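Design review, sub-item: ligand-bound model
Attendees: FS, YL, KQ
YL presented the inputs for the 5-amino-5-deoxy-1-O-phosphono-D-mannitol complex:
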Amino acid sequence: MKKIEKTPKNITWDMSSAEKGEYDDFMLKEIYEQPKAIRETIGARVAKGQKVVLDELDFTKEYLQSVDRIYIVACGTAMHAGLTVRKILEGFCKIQTEIDIASEFRYRDPLVTKNSLCIFISQSGETADTIAALKLAKSKGAKTIAISNVIGSSITNEADYSLYTHAGPEIAVASTKAYTSQIVLLAILGIYFAEVLGVAEKEVEKLKEELLSVPTKIEEILKDTSKIKKFALNMSKETNAFYIGRGIDSSVAMEGALKLKEISYIHSESYSAGELKHGAIALIENGVTVVGIMTDPDLTHKTISNLQEVITRGAKTFIVTNQDLENVTFDEVIRIAPISPYISPVLSVIPLQLLAYYISKEKGLDVDKPRNLAKSVTVE
Ligand code: M6R
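KQ shared the predicted structure:
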């Protein structure tokens, strides 16, 4: 018999983190836990005026300069989190970055080489397609990093390096705090790469300050959710909704639409706002809801113009923004604090999570256990 040596791993989760406490549902509890979860993700990794500390990694400038491409691979919400870091990796680090769905990556014979760096994101660390994608990247000689919330999960056992989000247990099927903590950890990773490479010093320093401000800014959004709740009551009667944004806002549109369909069973689609006129605008008719997200000053006026096109066709609009809206009238505007467009989904997603939650409650659905879905998809 072969003896296997294992190093014990400590998990700091306590019983209360697996109970609903004062909340009706785990999803609502987990939405409200996001400031705390993100403080845990940041931990001692980021401090103003100091280099990011990621003890788990030992990358050198020479190694990062030799990376031909970064692949970020995941499923569902974790993939949406992956989309957010491309702007840092390509914009600051100048490393070409591809984000892929694990179930596609594993079957498309990707051009992964031994100079590729592959990052796999999975809250549970047990998603079958993500594990298979990781094994494939390893078999092609790539270096692999796992990002997970669960200590000792399968992807962390397989990967060369593991980074934990430390968000605490996520029990509701609809992912909330795992998503925002993944975005924060990915941004920290991107900053680490930029610092090792010695690039974009000023921008990176500013981004660290912005990261440290995130928990307080989420608390501000959570203080008053009445406008979101009111809009949700009307929207709960609908059968279709569209989510649009540009750049990083289009990735949060994808996440908002997924949250809505997952727990409210309302058909929802997300589009890069510029794509609307290439087909989907045909579906816009009187009374349909269009959710618009605008956090990037360079792209806001473009999205506003797309929103004007849907308003002309009778759409109802729900806007999440921190931008000047140039006197255009929308049905509801949820204002979030100013934040760098490199990480803005950590704030802009909060009203979208709450919108989906309140609609699901209004419809009397089981928020935490939506039909046909499992928390962890361990089969293909
Ligand atoms: O555990 P994982 O992060 O690998 O799960 C991936 C997806 O199954 C998951 O994010 C799913 O999309 C969520 N239910 C969405 O809320």
